Amino acid sequence: MTLVHRARSTLAALSLACAAVTAVAEPEATWPTAAWPTADPEALGMDSRALARLVDFGTGTQMESLLVIRHGRIVCEAYYAPFTAGRRARLNTATQGVVGAAVGAAILAGKLRDAGQPALPLLPEVAPEERDPRSARITLQHLLEGTSGIQWKEPDGAPLRRGEYERTLDWARILLARPLRADPGVRYEADGGNMRLLSAIVTRATGQRTDRFVADALFTPMGITGFDWTIDPDGIATGDWGLGLTPRDFAKLGYLYLHNGRWDGRQLLPEEWADRIRQARVRMEMPSPDVFFQRDGWWTVPRRDIYLLAGYRRQMLLLQPSTGIVAVTTGRAYWPWHRFFDLLAATVVSNGAIAADPMAAASLRDRERSVAGR
Fold first, then answer.
1. Per CATH, domain 3-87+246-371 is 3.40.710
2. Which stretches of 38-175 are assigned E, i.e. beta strand?
3. Which residues contact 369 (CB under 8 A, 6 or more apart)?
4. Angle subtended by helix axes 95-108 and 247-258, to nearest 10
5. Residue pLDDT, tens place only, 103-145
C-alpha cells in the first residue's frame, strides 16, 4: 500500500488549501530507475497554464531548477540559466532527510535495532566519560527529531561554530560533551549536530561511510549513479549538509517515500519508516501562515498533506500523497512557502485526464525553453 492509498483515510480530516482533490489510486507505477518518463499535464489532470505560472514564479525568485512530477511522470521541468539540466545541486540541510533514510535502511539491514535504540552506546569510543547523566536517555529518535536536548548554542545565544569541530578529528566527542539544555524528547532545536552524530552512528554500525552505505542500499537500486557528498576531517560524511544531486535524482527519494520505501518490487526502507513522516509531532516555529512539524529531517504541513526536505535558500523536495505529486526546486534565494504551495495546488484540477490543450502545453514548453536561455 502506497502513501497515495494511505491518504484516503486521512483526507476527510484535512482542510487542504488546494481544495477539492480527493485521493485516488495512482496509475500503474512506473519506475524511473533509468529515466523519468514525461507526460502532457492535461493527460494527468493538470493545468499547463497554472504550471507556466509556477515557472514564472521561479523566474522572479532566483530558482535554478523546477521539477514537477505526477504519478511518476514529469509534467514540468525548467532549468534557469546559467543552471543546466544534469547539473548537481548542493542540497544544503535537505541532506538531513537522506541521513534519516540511511538510518531506516540500516534498520532494515539489521545493522541498527530501531529508532528507540540508545545513541551513546553506538559511539562508545567518542562518548566522553564526564557528561550529563541525562544523555544516557538520548535515542536515535531524539537525534532524528532534533530533540536530543544537547545545547548546540553558546550561552550568549550564538550557534556552536562549525570551525570548532570541523577542523579536528574529535568533533563527535566535542558535540557529545556539550551540556544538555533540556531533557531528551522535550525541546526541539534546529541544529545539524544531531544529524552529524547520526552519520557517525550509521558509519560505525554498517562498517561503511554513510555516503557509501547510502549508495549501496538506496541510490544504486534507484539508478542514482553520480552524487557528491562532503567528507569531514574525521572521514565522516557530513550529516547536516554537503550532499549534491541532480534535481531528477533528488526527486527519486520523494518517489521512494511516496511508495513506502519500496522501489520496483524491492523494499529499500522498512515500510513503516517511510510512513513515519506522516506522524510528525515536533512543531517548528516558522514564519509562515502554515503550521510545520518535523521528523527524520522532513518538514510536514498536515493541512496541505505536504511533506518536504528543505535546504538553505530553498533547495526543496516536496511530496503530496493525496495528489501523487513530487516536486523539486533548487535556487539562490528564499521565497514564501505558502505562495509556492498555493501555486502548486492550482496546477491540479482533476484526478483523471482532462481535455487536451495543445496551445497551453506548447506555451508551457516555450516558457521552459525561455528560462533556460534557449
1. yes
2. 63-70, 73-79, 89-90
3. none
4. 50
5. 999 999 999 999 999 999 999 887 777 778 888 899 999 999 9
Phi and psi, residue 245, nearest 5° = -140, 155
Quote the radius of gyration of the chain (alpha carbons, Å). Answer: 21
Q: Which residue matches cell numbers 490543450?
A: 357
Domain ranges across the chain: 3-87+246-371, 97-206
Q: Grid coordinates in use for 349?
A: 484540477
C-alpha 95/C-alpha 187 separation (Å) is 22
CA of residue 62 relative to chain centroid, distance: 20
Read off the pTM: 0.89
Please list the helix, strand and coil fractions of the chain in percent, rounded to the nearest 5, in that order: 35, 20, 45
Nearest to 95 by CA among 255, 228, 208: 228
pLDDT at 366 over 50: yes
22 vs 180, residue with greater confidence: 180
Task: Find all residues with CB under 8 Å of 96, minimum gap 6, and list them.
Answer: 192, 195, 239, 240, 241, 297, 309
Residue pair 295/277 in contact (Cβ under 8 Å)? The answer is yes
**Residue 138's closest CA among 181, 93, 190?**
181
Contact residues for 124 (Cβ-Cβ < 8 A; gap 6+): none
Query: Which tens digits make up the pLDDT trace of 307-364?
Result: 999 999 999 999 999 999 999 999 999 999 999 999 999 999 999 999 999 999 999 9
Closest CA to 80 of 230, 215, 247, 195: 247
- State the DSSP string of 258-296: HTTTEETTEE-S-HHHHHGGGG--EEE--SSSS-EEEET
Cis peptide before 37 (omega within 30 of 0): no
* Contact call for residues 200 and 211 (beta carbons, < 8 A): no
